[in-house]
Amino acid sequence: MKELIKCSNISVSYDGIDVLKNITFNVYNNDYLCIVGENGSGKSTLIKCLLGIKKADSGDIIMNDGLKPTDIGYLPQQTIMQKGFPATVEEVVISGCLNSRGYRPFYSKKEKNTAMQNMERLGIKDLQKRCYRDLSGGQQQRVLLARALCSAQKLILLDEPVTGLDPLAIIEMYSLIKELNQKDGISIIMVSHDIQNLLQHTKHVLHLTDNGTFYGTANEYLSSEIGNKFIGEIKQ
What we know:
Layout: E1 3-14, E2 17-28, E3 32-37, H1 43-50, E4 58-63, E5 72-75, H2 80-83, H3 89-94, H4 98-101, H5 109-121, H6 137-151, E6 155-159, H7 167-182, E7 187-191, H8 195-198, E8 204-209, E9 212-217, H9 218-222, H10 225-235
Parallel strand pairs: 3-7, 3-8, 5-6, 6-7
Antiparallel strand pairs: 1-2, 1-4, 8-9
């Protein structure tokens, strides 16, 4: 498999306290990587490093195949303020083209077409004039996923995308993401605590802990000590 991102010995500390220490993993073309770990294990810091928001203190993040941090589609965790954002669906989706727009004052015809295609792709074209804050949780996540697709070239990073959704919306979201990965060939990085559902789809797992790190295939994770312990704790 061809490496899309190669991360070697990534370390980050805040005020002398290690948040990430010697983290090594790869993201491949058409990969589906699940990042798990307890709260405070460094998942958010790693996301910032991948997006180019935070610079690692040491180690290397090498992006191949022409990929840049600004080419990564990003679906962040939703906050109460974001859920109440007073913009139309169309405005939210097309804002994913901001990086490609640069300093131009208006979106191009191509960018408008990209936004329209992604709304249609995710079944929200009929909602384009609706206010984002009036949508259901599942509809809002579809809007944010369409927005991420507007900036995604080869990779989408999703941070807890099913948190707070009802069971049907969770199934639909996982189905959409699986389709993007398998049919469209888009690599997926997903941060989530929903490891039991994710293991049905994921190809690789990166588990961050205070005492060490696991990186390997989903099958290797299932047979590992750290994987069995973590899954067992979740089931309790």
